[in-house]
Automatic annotation (TrEMBL), chain A:
<keyword id="KW-0472">Membrane</keyword>
<keyword id="KW-0812">Transmembrane</keyword>
<feature type="transmembrane region" description="Helical">
    <location>
        <begin position="140"/>
        <end position="169"/>
    </location>
</feature>
<feature type="transmembrane region" description="Helical">
    <location>
        <begin position="233"/>
        <end position="254"/>
    </location>
</feature>
<feature type="transmembrane region" description="Helical">
    <location>
        <begin position="21"/>
        <end position="40"/>
    </location>
</feature>
<feature type="transmembrane region" description="Helical">
    <location>
        <begin position="52"/>
        <end position="72"/>
    </location>
</feature>
<keyword id="KW-1133">Transmembrane helix</keyword>
UniProtKB/TrEMBL annotation, chain B:
<keyword id="KW-1133">Transmembrane helix</keyword>
<protein>
    <submittedName>
        <fullName>ABC-2 type transport system permease protein</fullName>
    </submittedName>
</protein>
<feature type="transmembrane region" description="Helical">
    <location>
        <begin position="33"/>
        <end position="50"/>
    </location>
</feature>
<dbReference type="Pfam" id="PF06182">
    <property type="entry name" value="ABC2_membrane_6"/>
</dbReference>
<feature type="transmembrane region" description="Helical">
    <location>
        <begin position="227"/>
        <end position="249"/>
    </location>
</feature>
<keyword id="KW-0812">Transmembrane</keyword>
<keyword id="KW-0472">Membrane</keyword>
TrEMBL record, chain C:
<dbReference type="GO" id="GO:0005524">
    <property type="term" value="F:ATP binding"/>
</dbReference>
<keyword id="KW-0067">ATP-binding</keyword>
<keyword id="KW-0813">Transport</keyword>
<dbReference type="InterPro" id="IPR003439">
    <property type="entry name" value="ABC_transporter-like_ATP-bd"/>
</dbReference>
<keyword id="KW-0547">Nucleotide-binding</keyword>
<feature type="domain" description="ABC transporter">
    <location>
        <begin position="25"/>
        <end position="258"/>
    </location>
</feature>
<dbReference type="Pfam" id="PF00005">
    <property type="entry name" value="ABC_tran"/>
</dbReference>
């Protein structure tokens, strides 16, 4: 276990080393949130609420969705693809750890760094500039925290899946890009799921994507309350477990293929 | 004129290589198409809840998006330099570039070409034609010429900004992921700038002039006379930005530290 | 003869950031950072004449790569001047690089996915080589390097030796008057090495091509270069003929005797040669003794004559100190005066 903790720590330190990244990241996230704030204000116009959400809730939603993204987002799909292409994965197999867990831990190290040094200060800055409502209830914060942990798990699982697929395609840049686009749209980062037409919402209920962004953001803005919260957390938990199946499956096939072809 | 010959040579090489990996090419085009669709979906969903965005109708916003896709596709085909830092600075590929008798930026543009991306120009024109038809826009004989001028201006604006961002790598020793993040900001030029406050409007016009890749030139075709002066500035801003970026690039090359050892 | 390379008090400094240790240190680094200025090349000067083949040697981090990169226009010098082929490499880069060829052993100049001849065709356009010049010159290069059968294969399918020969051909496509070779034989087998060396000698004779070669393999340098420039910690510690380096540093010879009598003692031998400058050391076997002498024919003959006359021997060998040993000695003992 301690080797995985060490992996988290190393990633954390690596992130601190890239300070240009750090400053530009805060700036760019703030600009992003700002632009969406204005866009949503324009969309609301004179209306007090759309789909049961007020402008204030909407801007809080956008802000928290982006800041939560800083935590769950990582590039391990790209990294895995890179390592497979360069033939480094074969080396990773002989190391005394599970490659996928190790990658997940690296992602977690990155995520924790951004959560503490990026999302939290970023959120304070954003809250100073734009009107944002924070929930007063401790229980909401508890649910929110649980929920973003699941966001991280599910997003990472999807990244692992996309990464492993590199074993089966010569070049999966296109796939990785497509995945990112789909997550931006269907996770609720750009638009709350409740804004979609009814049939589209029905379809998305059968997909894991809304567990990544929509659920934690809705919990945070008190847009989801009571039993809806429990249902949403169950939704996240079930997907987190379900996604293990295809990952394990593809991983085993990939390993076999690697042994046969020798990387 | 040697540069034209080199360009042609590279393009033909590129096509030969790509034809050996046809599946990749198709996947890439599909993912481009998906990317273009996402933004359209966003617009459509939003307009399911409102009729006007600061006085701009749904078709007008779609038209702007269609226009935006054209310079964006050309930019994507020739300025695929978002991993410049990784590839050329950290891995030291810049060494190789600098031992060849062609301008370094030009070589990198040629090496990193992604011509599949040009497919997006068709999507863009298609979207514009659809929206223009819905709006009943008239086309005069000089409109296609202006369209080309505006598109070239837009490409140069986009290219200039990203070349400037790439230049940071010559000075900063650390890995940065500014470029991928900047792609998001480019999107804001697709919405009417009047929805933003003064500061962001100023940024999108003069500092990161993404508004010249979308809303300003489109405003001309949509007959929004209050924006005409901005629309006609598009090629000028493009040339100015791109010239500055090449200038900074040339200085940056002298600061190149080489990789490793 | 004209100077192809003229380097005068050339210096290159790098800023190096040091990071503080631990989490707290890393956090402090976000706001302020410590840096040091480290000179990689310290005011070196030398000249190279047309047609010379010069070996450029030094340990890792001695400043070899940095100085080569300044000579090829990749890096800008901090101070001092470089004139190569009558040009300032960095200032007139695009014009300058037309006159040189570069091979980086660890970095491919060729395009990975396309056939070798397609890469050549691209480079031909890039270097603006007219058809008739290309035909006559490259046909010869392709033949000498024996790469004709490889031309229609993509680079990624070539073996290292095959690729290296193609790299060399690519670097010579525009028939440059000056060739920089950075570790051109790294990881290659002996036959390919020989082929490459012969080829380099040939073009040097045919076109008077000046060659600057950096390598870890000193046999390359022995085979090709009359002159060596040796770097250590950013300074030139030797610049002169390889043969002189050998005669002044590799002065001694070792004569190894294997005796029939296993009970022979150092004393028995020392008595024999007590009026000659000889030092006896024990060999790797009990009956093996080594006489260390200076490189002098008379002396060597005399020592052998006396020993052979006095004792029965079963084997005799004369060793010369290798260039590698010489260079190791130099680095251990410091600057050559």
């Amino acid at each position: 276990m301690s080797k995985y903790v060490e992996m988290i720590r190393i990633r954390f330190l690596m992130m601190l080393a890239y300070r240009t990244n750090y400053y530009s990241g805060i700036l760019i996230y703030s600009i992003n949130i700002g632009a969406y704030y204005f866009l949503w204000n324009a969309i609301y116009g004179e209306k007090a609420s759309i789909e049961g959400m007020s402008v204030l809730q909407m801007t809080s939603y956008v802000a928290v969705a982006w800041m939560a993204r800083a935590f769950y987002f990582n590039n391990i799909d790209r990294e895995i693809a890179q390592e497979i292409k360069e033939g480094k994965v074969a080396v990773e197999f002989i190391r005394p750890y599970h490659y996928l867990i190790m990658k997940t831990m690296q992602g977690l190290g990155e995520g924790l760094f951004r959560l503490f040094f990026f999302s939290v200060p970023g959120m304070v800055i954003v809250a100073l500039i734009f009107p944002i409502s924070f929930s007063a209830s401790g229980i909401t914060w508890l649910f929110f925290s649980t929920s973003i942990v699941f966001s991280f798990i599910i997003n990472t699982q999807i990244n692992l899946l996309t990464g492993i697929l590199t074993f089966f395609f010569f070049n999966n840049d296109g796939l990785i890009r497509a995945k990112r686009v789909i997550i931006d749209l269907f996770s609720g980062l750009l638009l709350p799921i409740s804004f979609y037409p009814g049939w589209a919402q029905q379809v998305m209920n059968f997909l894991p994507f809304q567990a990544i962004s929509y659920i934690p953001s809705m919990i945070f803005t008190d847009g989801m309350t009571g039993s809806a919260v429990y249902n949403a957390l169950w939704f996240q938990l079930i997907w987190a477990i379900l996604l293990i199946v295809p990952i394990q499956f593809l991983w085993i096939i990939a390993k076999k293929q690697l042994i046969v072809q020798g990387g | 004129m040697n540069y034209v010959a080199i360009f042609v040579q590279y393009v033909s090489q590129y096509i030969k290589t790509r034809l050996t990996y046809r599946v990749d090419m198709v996947i890439e085009m599909m993912s481009d198409l998906l990317f273009q669709a996402v933004n359209l979906v966003f617009i459509l969903v939003v307009f399911g809840h409102t009729d006007f965005l600061s006085g701009w109708s749904r078709e007008e916003i779609i038209f702007i998006y269609g226009f935006f896709l054209v310079p964006y596709a050309i930019f994507g085909a020739f300025f695929n330099i978002w991993d410049f830092n990784e590839r050329y600075i950290v891995k030291g590929e810049m060494d190789r570039i600098l031992t060849r008798p062609v301008h370094s930026l030009f070589q990198i543009i040629l090496e990193r070409m992604e011509l599949e991306s040009l497919f997006g120009t068709f999507t863009g024109i298609g979207v514009m034609v659809y929206a223009g038809y819905q709006l009943g826009l008239d086309i005069s004989w000089f409109d296609p010429i202006l369209f080309i001028l505006f598109v070239v201006g837009g490409v140069l604006v986009y290219g200039g900004i990203f070349v400037l961002l790439a230049c940071i790598s010559f000075w900063s020793d650390s890995r940065t992921s500014i470029m991928p993040m900047m792609y998001n900001i480019g999107n804001y030029g697709r919405y009417p700038v009047d929805i933003y406050n003064q500061v962001i409007r100023f940024i999108l016009t003069w500092i990161l002039p993404f508004a010249f890749v979308g809303v300003y030139p489109s405003a001309y075709f949509l007959g929004k006379e209050e924006w005409y002066s901005y629309a006609f500035m598009t090629p000028v801003i493009g040339i100015v930005f791109f010239t500055i970026s090449v200038f900074v690039w040339n200085i940056g090359v002298t600061k190149y530290r080489g990789a490793g050892n | 003869m004209e100077n192809i390379i003229q380097v005068d008090t050339l210096r290159k400094e790098f800023k190096s950031y040091s990071s503080r240790s631990g989490l707290k240190g890393a956090f402090r680094d976000l706001f302020t950072r410590n840096y040091k200025v480290i000179p990689a090349v310290k005011d070196i000067s030398f000249t190279i004449k047309k047609g010379e083949m010069v070996g450029y040697i030094g340990e890792n981090g001695a400043g070899k790569s940095t100085s080569i990169k300044m000579l090829t226009g990749i890096l800008t010098p901090t101070s001092g001047s470089v004139v190569v082929n009558g040009m300032n490499p960095h200032k007139e880069r695009e014009k300058f690089v037309r006159s040189i060829g570069v091979v980086f052993g660890q970095r491919s100049q060729l395009w990975w996915d396309i056939a070798v001849q397609e890469s050549f065709r691209l480079l031909k356009k890039v270097y603006h080589v007219p058809d008739h010049v290309y035909e006559s010159h490259m046909n010869h290069v392709i033949e000498s390097l024996d790469i004709g059968p490889l031309l229609d294969k993509p680079v990624r399918k070539l073996s290292l030796g095959q690729r290296m020969r193609c790299e060399l051909a690519a670097a010579l496509l525009h028939n440059p008057s000056l060739l920089f070779l950075d570790e051109p034989t790294i990881g290659l087998d002996v036959l390919v090495k020989l082929k490459i060396r012969n080829f380099l000698k040939e073009i040097n004779q045919k076109y008077q091509t000046t060659v600057l070669l950096t390598t870890h393999d000193l046999t390359d340098i022995e085979a090709l270069c009359e002159r060596v420039i040796m770097l250590d910690e950013g300074q030139i510690i030797y610049d002169g003929r390889l043969s002189k380096l050998k005669s002044s540093w590799g002065e001694g010879k070792q004569i190894e005797f294997q005796f029939a009598d296993p009970k022979i003692e150092k004393l028995n031998l020392a008595v024999l040669t007590n009026d000659l400058q000889t030092e006896w050391t024990s060999g790797n076997k009990k009956n093996v003794w080594v006489a260390n002498v200076v490189n002098d024919e008379e002396l060597i003959s005399e020592v052998i004559a006396r020993v052979v006359a006095a004792h029965k021997i079963t084997d005799i060998k004369i060793h010369e100190i290798t260039t590698e040993e010489i260079i190791r000695n130099i680095y251990e003992e410091g600057v050559i005066q």
